[in-house]
TrEMBL record:
Residues 11-483 form the Glycosyl hydrolase family 13 catalytic domain. It comes from Xaviernesmea rhizosphaerae. PANTHER family: ALPHA-AMYLASE FAMILY MEMBER, MALTOOLIGOSYL TREHALOSE SYNTHASE-RELATED. CDD domains: AmyAc_MTSase. This is Malto-oligosyltrehalose synthase. It comes from the Bacteria. Pfam families: Alpha-amylase.
């Protein structure tokens, strides 16, 4: 690694812009972020997005700062504030898609001009048919008959168009004459003349001329509006059919779209960033910011959505140079690797969360929970649920993509495939057989790793196919392996790989994870609900790989997309460490609340699997310090939890759906939850049961924070998670933290106090962050480049702790953290844990023996000389230890 340490992130702090977070608000936070010891602010998308966007991934102009955040001037103030504090800036960019909104000038252009637009190839559109705009609440014909669709004008945009409520979809200038032929006004003739001469290459001039015509003839404009509004439905329909687009029912998006979208969101249209002009146009501002040194790093959103991720990343790397860190949002499964030839530092870190699960989850305890869950809610195993979810996605949510691939694939395969349905069945089976998100074949041969993935999927797919479908599967194999070269084959190969990832994501993260409620701590992005390797050694193996493959990837524990906050998972891990007590409680609550379960025509509400999941979700999210008699606090929490419940049952896609909510079922489940939160009998029992797990969760939260700081990778702190993060899935996890409270906590000296007040207030966790990040800043080479070595522990409770060293030449660090301590805490409380820690000895390898070690978690940073062992009791913060030497 040749980059200077000054340009390499040592730690990041993720801020979610919007929802109150502006450039000026972020600038105010710069001193606080610096005080934590963070090196780089890590910003969610900051460029112009659709009005009211809550996340910024619906970009409308990638070359303009969002005015809602403060625009250029606000960004300049933020940049100055970061520079004053010595903080770098990493920006989240979105190369895969933009908003398919009239607010997006590039999209507006293709709506108006169709295939003649200068941006016709900016988006991944099938121009063999009209552009589909899924904006209607029903059929086009119904909307016209009801008068919802009329002909109108947009004076500000300078267009005549089809008006649907607040939106005016511009008419193609070539159809102005048709639309205005029955209007006997001088203004109409003038507009016809302007439209006749209109040039898509000079569209701004055309719109300016139309705006001027409207402004100069106010009376004529008013009369024109009246005349257009009086057109009959048949006339409106005739004009609409002449447009390069079609307005259609939003519920038909799954089958009828003419463009590639992000996942199943019709409001996000795929960019053809593989084309150099599109790359250049969509990256102009961010590359300028990098060149000027204002932005020091990039996070690439949804890299798997791109036609050719490797080629994109190589082009980006060439544009930004070798010194700018690049991380990619990519889910890698346990045996998967980030392709070695990608010029990136690594991923955004979801696999790190999965590695942590191996540390804190006890396999025997999970098996006990699994048996109880199967008795409580008998059903299919997770593997079957996931496969069924994939087939649901392929048959319904991604029906249009499958149809498009079938058409292209049959052309590429040539004669021999019996029918479209035969080919589609083979295609669905193959995508459902994938165990990773996608492969990365382009025009050349697949890599050996990708060929193995494909062969495994082919074998899985073939099992239940007919003879004819297997023949179609063979044709697909030939295309994907490059044995049938043609333009259609290349197109098929690209689109197939752009489909398998979204299908996996939606089927697993947004469907199966909400159906399989056995142990919610493992139902996390990048995780595996049936993780087989739940051992400390498995964590060590993952870190040994990590230090070799992606030592500067982000190590995250919470993000804007995680299913629950890091401390919620930390608390739930404890259930696997004492499952019997939890199982008894669930059985007791089930009996107490049996009368609140409603018998509907389609079954019990909630059904057992949902009821089991609700108790766990409540346990994970119950706020620290919330008392059972705090009516106002419970009401506020209940409002947040109700939103989670709605998402939980709609994402499961079993009895209710986003497009078609089952109102009776949803009302019954929500009433059940309200009953739980209003029953003092239940709440007192719940709080008493939760108490010991919650205490373990506080220690687990500290332990995973310390591991994150010391392990290979760059620790990423999601906004507010430097104290407790018990958030639920988005949008709950995107709420603005109480930064005033966080700043007040940080005013005190960083001290690793482990009394209950410090644990519950978050002061202990924030202090750990500050002390740990200070250690990283003091020895950057050690933590960025150091080897990873598992260490041996001895003592009666050694199996409850994890220990490792980081070594870089003369510099070294040793970390010890408690990871499986619930039984100790429940039996003897903090005193029992302290006694157990006092007996732990850390055995040092020969090259680390005899050194002087500095305690990084102690208030005064004491030092000691150790032979071939360190006593955990030597740490001022025992049972946590972080010591460095050199």
């Amino acid at each position: 690694m040749t980059r200077p340490f000054s340009s390499r992130p040592l730690s990041t702090y993720r801020l979610q812009f919007r929802e109150g977070m502006t450039f000026d608000k972020a600038a105010e936070l710069a001193p606080y972020i610096k005080r934590l010891g963070v090196s780089h602010l890590y910003a969610s998308p900051i460029f112009a997005a659709t009005s009211g966007s809550t996340h910024g991934y619906d970009v409308t102009d990638s070359n303009r700062f969002d005015p809602d955040l403060g625009g250029q001037e606000g960004f300049d103030r933020l940049s100055a504030a970061l520079k004053a504090e010595g903080l770098g800036l990493i920006v989240d960019i979105v190369p895969n898609h933009m908003a398919s909104s009239l607010e997006n000038p590039w999209w507006r252009s293709i709506v108006e001009w169709g295939a003649d637009s200068p941006h016709a190839r900016t988006f991944d559109v099938d121009w063999s048919r009209p552009l589909t705009l899924t904006v209607l609440g029903g059929s086009f014909e119904e909307a016209v008959q009801k008068g919802e669709i009329k002909l109108g004008l947009d004076a500000q945009a300078g267009v005549i168009g089809l008006s649907y409520y607040e939106q005016v979809f511009p008419l193609a200038p070539s159809t102005y004459a048709q639309a205005l032929k029955a209007v006997d006004l001088p203004l109409a003739r003038h507009l016809e003349s302007l439209a006749e001469k209109a040039d898509p290459g000079a569209e701004d001039d055309f719109h300016a001329a139309v705006r001027q015509a409207f402004s100069e003839d106010a009376a004529g404009t008013s009369a024109l509006e009246e005349a257009l509004a009086a057109l009959k439905p048949a006339q409106i329909t005739e004009i609409a059919e002449a447009q390069p687009y079609r307005l259609m029912d939003w519920k038909k998006a799954a089958s009828g779209l003419s463009y590639r979208r992000f996942f199943e969101i019709a409001g996000l249209a795929g960019l053809r960033v593989e084309d150099e002009p599109v790359f250049t146009a969509s990256h102009a501002l961010i590359l300028d910011l990098v060149e000027k040194g204002v932005v020091q790093g990039l996070r690439i959103d949804h890299v798997d959505g791109l036609a050719d991720p490797k080629a994109y990343l190589e082009r980006l790397r060439a544009a930004v140079g070798p010194d700018v860190p690049i991380v990619v949002e990519k889910i890698i499964e346990e045996e998967e690797r980030v392709p070695e030839d990608w010029p990136v530092e690594g991923t955004t870190g979801y696999e790190f969360i999965a590695a942590l699960a191996r540390l804190f989850t006890v396999k025997d305890g999970l098996d006990t929970l699994a048996r109880a869950y199967d008795r409580f809610a008998p059903g299919d195993p997770y593997e079957t649920l996931l496969h069924d979810a994939k087939m649901l996605m392929l048959q319904e949510n991604f029906e249009g993509e499958v149809s498009t691939l079938t058409r292209i694939g049959r052309e590429a395969a040539g004669p021999g495939v019996e029918s479209d349905e035969t080919f589609a069945a083979a295609l669905r089976a193959l995508v459902a057989g994938f165990t990773v998100y996608r492969t990365y074949g382009t025009t050349g041969a697949l890599s050996p790793a990708d060929e193995t993935v494909l062969d495994d999927a082919l074998a899985a797919a073939a099992i239940d196919l007919s003879t004819q479908e297997r023949e179609a599967l063979g044709a697909i194999e030939a295309i994907l392996k490059g044995r049938s070269p043609s333009a259609a084959a290349t197109d098929f190969r690209t689109r197939f790989q752009q489909l398998s990832g979204p299908v996996m994501a939606k089927a697993m993260e947004d469907t199966a994870f909400y159906r399989h409620n056995r142990f919610l701590a493992l139902n996390e992005v990048g995780g595996n609900p049936v993780e087989p390797h739940l051992t400390v050694d498995a964590f060590h193996d993952a870190m040994i790989r990590r230090v070799v493959e992606q030592p500067e990837a982000l190590s995250t524990t919470s993000t804007h997309d995680t299913k629950r906050g890091e401390d919620s998972r930390a608390r739930l891990y404890a259930l696997s460490q004492a499952p019997e007590r939890w199982i008894e409680a669930v059985q007791r609550w089930h009996g107490q609340n049996a009368g609140a379960v409603q018998a509907l025509k389609d079954g019990a509400a909630p059904e057992p699997a949902v009821e089991w999941g609700l108790y766990q979700a409540l346990a994970g999210a119950w706020p620290v310090g919330l008392k059972t008699d705090d009516a106002k606090g419970i009401e506020a929490f209940g409002s947040r939890f109700a939103a989670y419940v709605e998402k939980m049952i709609r994402e499961a896609k079993l009895r209710s759906f986003w497009a078609e909510p089952n109102e009776a079922y949803e009302a019954a489940v929500q009433e059940f939850v309200r009953g739980l939160l209003s029953s003092q009998e239940f709440l007192r029992d719940f709080a008493a049961t939760l108490g010991p797990y919650a205490l373990t969760g506080l220690y687990n939260g500290l332990a995973q924070t310390l591991v994150k700081i010391a392990a290979p990778g760059v620790p990423d702190i999601y906004q507010g998670s430097e104290t407790e993060d018990l958030s639920l899935v988005d949008p709950d996890n995107r709420r603005m933290p109480d930064f005033a409270r966080l700043a007040r906590l940080a005013e005190a000296p960083a001290r690793m106090r482990l009394d209950l007040d410090a644990l519950e207030s978050g002061a202990a966790k924030q202090s750990l962050v500050r002390l740990g990040l200070a250690a990283r800043q003091a020895q950057p080479a050690l933590f960025l480049e150091g080897d990873y070595r598992p260490l041996t522990l001895s003592g009666d409770h050694a199996h409850r702790f994890v220990a490792f060293a980081r070594v870089s030449g003369a510099q070294a660090a040793v970390m010890v953290a408690p990871v499986r301590i619930h039984e100790l805490l429940e039996a003897s409380g903090a005193q029992g844990l302290d006694m157990a820690a006092g007996e732990i000895t850390v055995h040092l390898p020969q090259d680390l023996a005899g050194r002087v070690w500095q305690d990084r978690l102690g208030e005064h940073g004491g030092s000691m000389t150790a032979g071939d062992a360190l006593a955990l009791s030597a740490s001022a913060a025992a049972p946590f230890l972080l010591m460095t030497t050199g």
